[in-house]
Amino acid sequence: MISQISAPRLKGHRFPRSIISYAVWAYYRFSLSLRDVEDLLAERGIVVSYEAIRAWVGKFGPHIAKRVRATRPRPTDKWHLDEVVIMINGVQHWLWRAVDSNGEVLDILVQTRRNARAAKRFISRLIARWGEPRVIVTDKLRSYCAALRQLGLNVDHRAHKGLNNRIEGSHRPTRKREKIQGRFKSARQAQRFLCAHDETANLFRPRRHKMTASRYRQSLVAAFERWNDCAKSMAA
Protein backbone atom coordinates (compact mmCIF):
# COMPACT_ATOMS: atom_id res chain seq x y z
CA MET A 1 0.00 0.00 0.00
CA ILE A 2 2.93 2.36 0.54
CA SER A 3 4.39 4.12 -2.47
CA GLN A 4 7.72 5.94 -2.54
CA ILE A 5 8.16 8.67 0.03
CA SER A 6 8.97 11.05 -2.82
CA ALA A 7 5.34 10.88 -4.01
CA PRO A 8 3.31 14.13 -3.92
CA ARG A 9 2.62 15.19 -0.35
CA LEU A 10 -0.79 15.79 1.14
CA LYS A 11 -1.26 19.51 1.60
CA GLY A 12 -0.23 20.58 5.09
CA HIS A 13 1.59 17.31 5.82
CA ARG A 14 5.18 16.13 5.40
CA PHE A 15 4.19 12.76 3.96
CA PRO A 16 2.18 11.66 0.91
CA ARG A 17 -1.37 10.39 1.11
CA SER A 18 -0.29 6.76 0.59
CA ILE A 19 1.84 6.69 3.76
CA ILE A 20 -0.80 8.40 5.87
CA SER A 21 -3.55 6.07 4.66
CA TYR A 22 -1.29 3.06 5.30
CA ALA A 23 -0.69 4.16 8.91
CA VAL A 24 -4.42 4.69 9.45
CA TRP A 25 -5.21 1.31 7.87
CA ALA A 26 -2.64 -0.56 9.98
CA TYR A 27 -3.88 1.00 13.21
CA TYR A 28 -7.52 0.07 12.59
CA ARG A 29 -6.94 -3.24 10.83
CA PHE A 30 -4.70 -4.87 13.45
CA SER A 31 -4.55 -4.81 17.24
CA LEU A 32 -1.68 -2.34 17.27
CA SER A 33 -0.79 0.59 19.46
CA LEU A 34 0.33 3.90 17.97
CA ARG A 35 3.91 3.02 18.88
CA ASP A 36 3.56 -0.30 17.04
CA VAL A 37 2.54 1.55 13.88
CA GLU A 38 5.47 3.92 14.41
CA ASP A 39 7.82 0.91 14.44
CA LEU A 40 6.26 -0.55 11.29
CA LEU A 41 6.87 2.69 9.44
CA ALA A 42 10.40 2.99 10.85
CA GLU A 43 11.25 -0.46 9.47
CA ARG A 44 10.35 0.94 6.03
CA GLY A 45 12.58 3.96 6.53
CA ILE A 46 9.77 6.36 7.41
CA VAL A 47 10.58 8.31 10.55
CA VAL A 48 7.43 9.71 12.14
CA SER A 49 6.37 10.03 15.78
CA TYR A 50 3.43 8.18 17.27
CA GLU A 51 1.88 11.56 18.10
CA ALA A 52 1.79 12.40 14.40
CA ILE A 53 0.17 9.01 13.75
CA ARG A 54 -2.39 9.78 16.47
CA ALA A 55 -3.24 13.01 14.64
CA TRP A 56 -3.58 11.15 11.31
CA VAL A 57 -5.84 8.54 12.84
CA GLY A 58 -8.05 11.14 14.49
CA LYS A 59 -8.25 13.35 11.42
CA PHE A 60 -8.49 10.88 8.55
CA GLY A 61 -9.78 7.66 10.11
CA PRO A 62 -13.43 8.75 10.46
CA HIS A 63 -13.35 10.33 7.00
CA ILE A 64 -12.13 7.16 5.27
CA ALA A 65 -14.57 5.02 7.28
CA LYS A 66 -17.44 7.28 6.22
CA ARG A 67 -16.46 6.90 2.58
CA VAL A 68 -16.14 3.12 2.94
CA ARG A 69 -19.60 2.97 4.53
CA ALA A 70 -21.09 5.02 1.71
CA THR A 71 -19.85 2.51 -0.88
CA ARG A 72 -21.09 -0.56 0.98
CA PRO A 73 -23.73 -2.80 -0.60
CA ARG A 74 -27.10 -2.96 1.13
CA PRO A 75 -27.03 -5.32 4.15
CA THR A 76 -29.22 -8.40 4.50
CA ASP A 77 -32.73 -7.95 5.90
CA LYS A 78 -32.03 -9.89 9.10
CA TRP A 79 -30.37 -7.87 11.86
CA HIS A 80 -28.91 -8.88 15.21
CA LEU A 81 -28.83 -6.25 17.98
CA ASP A 82 -26.99 -6.37 21.27
CA GLU A 83 -25.50 -4.12 23.93
CA VAL A 84 -22.39 -4.55 26.04
CA VAL A 85 -21.10 -2.55 28.97
CA ILE A 86 -17.90 -0.50 28.65
CA MET A 87 -16.24 1.61 31.33
CA ILE A 88 -15.17 5.16 30.45
CA ASN A 89 -13.41 7.17 33.16
CA GLY A 90 -14.95 4.93 35.79
CA VAL A 91 -18.50 5.52 34.49
CA GLN A 92 -20.56 2.68 33.05
CA HIS A 93 -21.63 3.14 29.43
CA TRP A 94 -23.38 0.85 27.02
CA LEU A 95 -22.12 0.04 23.54
CA TRP A 96 -25.06 -0.78 21.27
CA ARG A 97 -24.15 -2.73 18.14
CA ALA A 98 -26.07 -4.16 15.19
CA VAL A 99 -24.85 -6.70 12.62
CA ASP A 100 -26.57 -8.33 9.67
CA SER A 101 -26.87 -12.07 9.06
CA ASN A 102 -23.41 -12.09 7.43
CA GLY A 103 -21.83 -10.66 10.57
CA GLU A 104 -21.07 -7.24 9.06
CA VAL A 105 -21.43 -4.41 11.56
CA LEU A 106 -24.22 -2.02 10.56
CA ASP A 107 -23.65 0.61 13.22
CA ILE A 108 -22.60 1.20 16.83
CA LEU A 109 -23.72 3.77 19.37
CA VAL A 110 -22.22 4.56 22.78
CA GLN A 111 -24.87 5.59 25.31
CA THR A 112 -25.11 5.98 29.06
CA ARG A 113 -28.46 4.16 29.33
CA ARG A 114 -29.81 0.70 28.62
CA ASN A 115 -33.51 1.50 28.52
CA ALA A 116 -36.31 1.83 25.97
CA ARG A 117 -35.32 5.38 25.07
CA ALA A 118 -31.75 4.30 24.30
CA ALA A 119 -32.96 1.30 22.30
CA LYS A 120 -35.38 3.50 20.34
CA ARG A 121 -32.63 5.99 19.55
CA PHE A 122 -30.33 3.24 18.27
CA ILE A 123 -32.98 1.48 16.17
CA SER A 124 -34.15 4.80 14.69
CA ARG A 125 -30.56 5.53 13.70
CA LEU A 126 -30.32 2.14 11.98
CA ILE A 127 -33.61 2.57 10.13
CA ALA A 128 -32.62 6.03 8.92
CA ARG A 129 -29.39 4.64 7.50
CA TRP A 130 -30.39 1.24 6.12
CA GLY A 131 -34.19 1.17 5.92
CA GLU A 132 -36.52 -1.26 7.66
CA PRO A 133 -35.38 -4.91 8.02
CA ARG A 134 -37.50 -8.04 7.81
CA VAL A 135 -36.25 -9.64 11.04
CA ILE A 136 -34.66 -8.22 14.20
CA VAL A 137 -33.03 -10.64 16.61
CA THR A 138 -32.25 -9.51 20.17
CA ASP A 139 -31.72 -10.92 23.62
CA LYS A 140 -34.56 -10.81 26.14
CA LEU A 141 -34.02 -7.19 27.17
CA ARG A 142 -37.52 -5.71 27.33
CA SER A 143 -36.31 -2.31 26.17
CA TYR A 144 -36.18 -3.66 22.60
CA CYS A 145 -39.84 -4.67 22.69
CA ALA A 146 -40.86 -1.27 24.03
CA ALA A 147 -38.76 0.58 21.45
CA LEU A 148 -40.14 -1.43 18.52
CA ARG A 149 -43.68 -0.92 19.79
CA GLN A 150 -43.15 2.85 20.05
CA LEU A 151 -41.66 3.00 16.56
CA GLY A 152 -44.53 0.95 15.12
CA LEU A 153 -42.24 -1.18 12.95
CA ASN A 154 -43.71 -4.10 11.05
CA VAL A 155 -40.81 -6.48 11.63
CA ASP A 156 -40.46 -10.01 12.94
CA HIS A 157 -38.88 -9.53 16.38
CA ARG A 158 -37.21 -12.65 17.79
CA ALA A 159 -36.11 -12.19 21.39
CA HIS A 160 -34.00 -15.18 22.32
CA LYS A 161 -30.45 -15.21 23.68
CA GLY A 162 -29.57 -18.45 21.89
CA LEU A 163 -30.39 -16.94 18.49
CA ASN A 164 -28.05 -14.00 18.94
CA ASN A 165 -24.68 -15.75 18.76
CA ARG A 166 -23.97 -13.96 15.48
CA ILE A 167 -23.38 -10.67 17.27
CA GLU A 168 -21.71 -12.00 20.40
CA GLY A 169 -18.46 -12.62 18.52
CA SER A 170 -18.44 -9.09 17.11
CA HIS A 171 -17.80 -7.70 20.61
CA ARG A 172 -14.48 -9.53 20.98
CA PRO A 173 -12.34 -7.20 18.81
CA THR A 174 -13.74 -4.26 20.79
CA ARG A 175 -12.67 -5.82 24.07
CA LYS A 176 -9.24 -6.49 22.63
CA ARG A 177 -8.72 -2.90 21.48
CA GLU A 178 -10.16 -1.55 24.71
CA LYS A 179 -7.47 -3.46 26.62
CA ILE A 180 -4.65 -2.28 24.32
CA GLN A 181 -5.73 1.34 24.63
CA GLY A 182 -6.07 1.16 28.40
CA ARG A 183 -9.82 1.80 28.13
CA PHE A 184 -11.50 4.54 26.17
CA LYS A 185 -11.01 8.10 27.36
CA SER A 186 -14.45 9.51 26.53
CA ALA A 187 -17.74 8.47 24.96
CA ARG A 188 -16.99 10.63 21.91
CA GLN A 189 -13.54 9.09 21.46
CA ALA A 190 -15.01 5.57 21.79
CA GLN A 191 -17.73 6.37 19.24
CA ARG A 192 -15.29 7.80 16.69
CA PHE A 193 -12.76 5.01 17.10
CA LEU A 194 -15.20 2.09 17.02
CA CYS A 195 -17.10 3.40 13.99
CA ALA A 196 -13.87 3.48 11.97
CA HIS A 197 -12.56 0.25 13.52
CA ASP A 198 -15.71 -1.75 12.71
CA GLU A 199 -15.96 -0.35 9.19
CA THR A 200 -12.37 -1.41 8.52
CA ALA A 201 -13.12 -4.85 9.92
CA ASN A 202 -16.12 -5.18 7.60
CA LEU A 203 -13.91 -4.43 4.63
CA PHE A 204 -10.85 -6.54 5.47
CA ARG A 205 -12.32 -9.44 7.42
CA PRO A 206 -14.65 -11.29 5.06
CA ARG A 207 -16.04 -14.71 5.99
CA ARG A 208 -12.82 -16.40 5.01
CA HIS A 209 -13.86 -19.87 6.18
CA LYS A 210 -16.50 -19.89 3.44
CA MET A 211 -14.11 -18.82 0.67
CA THR A 212 -11.61 -20.61 -1.49
CA ALA A 213 -8.04 -19.33 -1.34
CA SER A 214 -8.30 -17.67 -4.75
CA ARG A 215 -11.61 -16.02 -3.93
CA TYR A 216 -10.20 -14.70 -0.66
CA ARG A 217 -7.20 -13.17 -2.46
CA GLN A 218 -9.55 -11.53 -4.94
CA SER A 219 -11.64 -10.08 -2.11
CA LEU A 220 -8.49 -8.74 -0.46
CA VAL A 221 -7.36 -7.03 -3.67
CA ALA A 222 -10.81 -5.49 -4.03
CA ALA A 223 -10.71 -4.32 -0.39
CA PHE A 224 -7.37 -2.57 -0.87
CA GLU A 225 -8.61 -0.90 -4.04
CA ARG A 226 -11.70 0.33 -2.26
CA TRP A 227 -9.71 1.60 0.72
CA ASN A 228 -7.29 3.46 -1.54
CA ASP A 229 -10.15 4.98 -3.54
CA CYS A 230 -11.72 6.25 -0.32
CA ALA A 231 -8.36 7.58 0.89
CA LYS A 232 -7.98 9.65 -2.29
CA SER A 233 -10.63 12.03 -1.01
CA MET A 234 -8.56 12.91 2.08
CA ALA A 235 -7.97 16.62 2.31
CA ALA A 236 -5.83 18.73 4.63
Automatic annotation (TrEMBL):
Organism field: Allosediminivita pacifica
Q: Which NCBIfam families match?
A: transpos_IS6
| InterPro entries in the cross-refs | DDE_dom (IPR032874), IS_Transposase (IPR052183), RNaseH-like_sf (IPR012337), RNaseH_sf (IPR036397), Transpos_IS6 (IPR047930)
Q: Which residues form a coiled coil?
A: none
Give the keywords, sorted: DNA recombination, DNA-binding, Transposition
Put simply, this protein is called Putative transposase
Q: What does this protein do?
A: Involved in the transposition of the insertion sequence.
One GO biological-process annotation of the entry reads: transposition
The cross-references to PANTHER family, in alphabetical order and at most eight, read:
BLL1675 PROTEIN
Give residue ranges for domain DDE: 77-205
Per UniProt, what is one GO molecular function of this protein? DNA binding
